[in-house]
Specification:
The protein is of the alpha+beta class. The chain is built from 4 helices and 3 strands, in the order αββααβα.
Amino acid sequence: MPKDFSRGRRIADQIQRELSEIIRLELKDPRVALITITDVEVTQDNSHAKIFFTALGEPVQQEAATKALEHAAGFLRSALAKRIQLRTVPQLHFHYDISVERGVRLSKLIDEAVADPAGKKSS
């Protein structure tokens, strides 16, 4: 079992590296100019991959980036097939990664609590 897990993780890491490069160098859609692939999860049979990404900007721009990536999924999958040696290149499913935003928000709240330990707001 652990051997399968490490192979799946290696495949996911390679997909993440290759997709980042393909998006940066080959995808000409301005809606995906400022995205970062944060994680990839591949199913055990390699038939599907969840691609998690973050994007700078407002929620409207993040939604546009998601639509652009979904629209380009076929192109990205075929470009990926040319770069990696897998029997089956997974179907790509894009998901906006809110964990980074959540972490920034929590960090800000912690910083505010530490700066004002009594819980009093200074005006």
